[in-house]
């Protein structure tokens, strides 16, 4: 099953706001509907956002074929729908570069981005599983954060794809999914995907992660990224940094799995990245709140970055 695709002239997505209660497919016919789906996290996760950006430009190219000004505005709105994952603007720009060749060329480019993400997920699953086995030995116990499965990509996923591959190789002793406050991508989405894949797992509250590592119950942390900077800083769902600190203190690997489409060597470090502020409403019950959606894990806390083409041993001085 694909999280996002182009079907009969519209973008179809699995509505991730409805999971795990309901597996619902949304058909998006307009750029406005697509942007609303991105901003509500109906479609989310860096690789899926890259594909959404490209399909969004394909939608815009059809609707505004005779109005270049309106087309430009629509493309900019897509690029800016969420600021942190580099894939969104990158996917939109890549598709937009084909506009001079017509709407069908734009759609072909969007299909290419979709297919590259599918291939990248498969490559990362193998490369990452090899690395985890090398670093941790047979049958490690892993902790993951947010959702990095097929829902966040097109199929398979990034870090969760590695978990799936280790399970397939019978080289996995256990998985803890960190629940990922406030929108519960771990408790809702990762748990749903692991259950579908037949992988036993437990959910932990986010703040328990570092303690579980300190108590020797985790052999490695494995998670994804929304942007990887030139110096190796990793931007990912808020809470990742705490897990990196916990892993550092416990002396266990902290491994980041992301496609090359998430590596942004034009951004020197995490300090240059806009961290999305999703506002207080997702958090407030009894008081006002601050709600950064992502955080920055400094490169000196990262063991390795696994992409579809390479393993970057950040701990040994390698950089993207
Ligand atoms: C393969 S997805 C990697 C990241 O995009 C993921 O960990 C993440 O932080 C997603 O955040 P989200 O706000 O749910 O889009």
Briefly characterize the structure:
Its EC number is 5.3.1.23. Keywords: Isomerase. With about 325 residues, the chain is of the alpha/beta class.
Describe the protein in words.
It contains 9 helices and 14 strands. Strand 1 (4-7) and strand 2 (10-14) form a beta hairpin. Helix 1 (31-39) packs antiparallel against helix 2 (46-63) and helix 2 packs antiparallel against helix 3. The strands form 3 sheets. The chain has a 7-stranded mixed β-sheet with strand order 6-5-4-7-10-13-14. A 4-stranded mixed β-sheet has the order 11-8-9-12, with helices on one face. It has a 3-stranded antiparallel β-sheet with strand order 1-2-3, covered by helices on one side. The protein is globular. It has helices at residues 31-39, 46-63, 68-79, 86-96, 103-136, 159-168, 185-196, 209-214, 240-250; strands spanning 4-7, 10-14, 25-28, 141-145, 174-178, 202-204, 220-223, 227-229, 234-237, 254-257, 263-264, 294-297, 304-306, 311-312. It has 2 domains: 4-116, Four Helix Bundle (Hemerythrin (Met), subunit A), CATH 1.20.120.420; 124-316, Rossmann fold (3-Layer(aba) Sandwich), CATH 3.40.50. The protein is 38% helix and 16% strand. The protein is an alpha/beta fold and 320 residues long. The site of 5-S-methyl-1-O-phosphono-5-thio-D-ribulose has 19 residues, from helix 2 and strand 9. Its EC number is 5.3.1.23. One of its GO terms (biological process) is L-methionine salvage from methylthioadenosine.
